Amino acid sequence: MHKIKLILSLSFLFFSLLFADENTNVNISNVWISEAPPTVSVLAAYATIENLSDQTQTLTSVTSSSFSKIELHLSKVVDEMATMEKQETLMIPAKDSIEFTPGAYHLMLFDPKISLKAGDKINLIFTFADNTSHNIEALVEKRNNDNHEHHHHNSH
Amino acid sequence: MLKELSNSKFLIPAMAILAMFAASAGFYISLKQSQNQTPPSIELTAAIEGLFWPNPKKILEFNTLDQTGTPFGLEQIKDKWSFVFFGYTQCPDICPITMSVMNESYNQLANENSNLQIIFVSVDPERDTSEILEQYVSYFNDAFIGLGGNAEMINSLTKQIGVAYFLNNEEQKEGYLVDHSASIFIFDPKARLVGKLSAPHESKKIIEQFTKIKEFINAQN
What we know:
The complex is a heterodimer. By secondary structure, chain A is mainly beta. Chain A has one helix at residues 2-18, and strands at 26-34, 42-51, 57-63, 69-78, 81-87, 90-92, 97-100, 105-110, 121-128, 133-141. In chain A, strands 1, 2, 3, 4, 5, 6, 7, 8, 9 and 10 form a ten-stranded mixed beta sheet that branches. The radius of gyration of chain A is 18 Å and the shape is globular. By secondary structure, chain B is an alpha+beta fold. Chain B is globular, with a radius of gyration of 27 Å.
């Protein structure tokens, strides 16, 4: 009985090593872009990034052919003043997660190539310090502040 | 030990300590009573978060332009309750959150508050023209008002309220950020700054605070 267990766990270990790819370190979910008035050329996107690994994972960039530039920002209210701080990179501690959420961390998407409407789908590429990339489809949605559950669909 | 306590040698210090306790307890009780004697109206104002009372600031003449390019000043806030928020249209996070929360609040308040108006004041005169403001505010609600104009016009209102704003990364010619107040200011129908709603904003909280402030102001008139 013990032998079987040992063989099973060893083979599991072997196969998980064999098929371990870049995508097992992090899980990116709940990715959505907020619809904005048509004259607005800076949009916000939100997501949850979960670090499944035992090491810190560092998000270094997010890119998309649908925007001229994407930056990581942190919204803050300090002494009643709203401000945004650009983040060059973002560290996600081991076995932890970071929420990009309205009023806090968000992706700033500059100059959309086309006017985006709720229901549109846009590809975003999240790149990490270990050079792994994740191509994620983000859904454009209207803001809905009173029902946060609304955004908890899984887009990964 | 008991024997020793009954000795006068110990009795005197023990009595002294007891007397000190009694005196401080008496002082504490009288302090509590004096605190309870403050006028009830001040206690009430302390219970209403964000209320500016007594002596709310009277708004004086200001000269901004609305989203149609029409002059908008003191006359346009008289006899109305106004929610006033300062932001800029290229702000991706805090401003659209606040605008959509104000929309949710307005939709619930408008029926019973026909004289409520929601005002977005742009603090980005370089980029926010009347046309842009028109499209911006109407995206959230057709009834919303968007105020702008040149810097001097905008300052005629911001300086009275005491809100600051400044360019965050001026070296970037395009895509610069503006730091601005995160609060929603409340003007009453007598054109007085009677309250401030602090971020983070939620429609439930806004409705509760506004209802309390309005009830209080109406009771004073």
